[in-house]
Amino acid sequence: MAVFAYVRVSTQMQTLESQIYEIENWCQRKGWHVDKWTNESVSGTVAWEKRSLGRLIRKMRRGDTLVSAELSRLGRSMLMIMSILNYCVQKGIHIYTIKDNFELSDNINSKIIAFAFALASEIERTLISQRTREALAAKKIAGVRLGRPPGATKKVIKVHEEIHLVKARIEDGESLTHIAKTYGIHRNTLSIHLKTASSAMSQCPENLDN
C-alpha cells in the first residue's frame, strides 16, 4: 500500500504549511510514511479531473491511500466531492480526511456513497433537462425564434454556389477568416463546406467524351 498526501490552497496568499503539518502528524500517529506529496494552488471549483488531484488519483492503484486535511480540499461542491469519492470507490482507493474524521475504504459506507452519487447524478441530469425544456418554452412564448438564425441557410447556399470563387480567392492568398466574414459566416463553417465540396468532387466519376 502506498500513501499519497494531497494539499490545496485557493490563492497564492494562502499557505500550505498548516495542512502539511496536520497530515504529517496524523500519519506519524498511525505509523504511516507518505510516499508522495501533491501540492497545488487552484480554486476548488475547477473540475478535479483537470487539477493535479485528477492526475494523482488516476496514477494511484487499488489499495493505495489518499490523505488530505479535509474534504473541502478535494472540492468545493458536494457533487464534485461525491464524484471523486465514487471514482475512488470504483478504483479501490482509500481516502482519509483529518478534520472531518472521514474514512473511505472497503465498507458499507463506501457503497452508500457510490449509490448516493449515482442517484445525485441522475437527479442533476433530470433537472438540467427540465430547465432546458422550460427555457426553450419561455423563449417560444416570448416570440424568440429558435434554431438557425434567419438568413443563415441562404448564406450557406451562397457559399456552395460560389465554392469555385472561394477556392480561387484562397489560391490568390486571401485568408479563410477574411473570406468567411464577407459571407457572414464563421471561419470553421466555411472550412467545413470547403472540405465537403472537395470530398464530393473527388467521389464524382471523371467526365468521359462520347
What composes the largest sheet? 5 strands, mixed
Number of strands: 5
Based on CA atoms alone, the radius of gyration comes out at 28 Å
Q: Main sheet: which strands, in order across?
A: 2-1-3-4-5
Q: How many H/I helices?
A: 8
Oligomer category: single chain
- Extract low-pLDDT stretches: 205-210
CATH topology of the largest domain: Rossmann fold
**What is the class of the largest domain in the CATH system?**
Alpha Beta
Going by CATH, the homologous superfamily of the largest domain would be: Resolvase, N-terminal catalytic domain
End-to-end separation: 79 Å
Summed over residues and divided by their number, the pLDDT gives a mean of: 81
Strand and helix order: EHEHEHEEHHHHH
* Number of separate domains: 2
* Strand portion: 5-15%
Strand-pairing-aware structural class: alpha/beta
Gross morphology: elongated
What portion of residues is helical?
40-55%
